[in-house]
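Internal tracking record. Fields below are filled automatically when a chain is submitted to the structure queue. Please do not edit lines marked as system-generated. If the sequence contains nonstandard residues, flag them in the REMARKS field before resubmitting.
Queue: standard
Priority: normal
Entity type: single polypeptide chain
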Amino acid sequence: MKIHICADGAEPVRWPGDTFHLAADAPHTERYGPQVVQHLVARR
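SYSTEM-GENERATED OUTPUT FOLLOWS
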């Protein structure tokens, strides 16, 4: 299962166990297939 998160013109593929960071209020899009995607969001 994978998820595509597009930000700043780049769209790297994220796989289970990957981590990533976005700035607060950063515009982005998410794309994934018909499978369920679970992700943990943490803010500080």
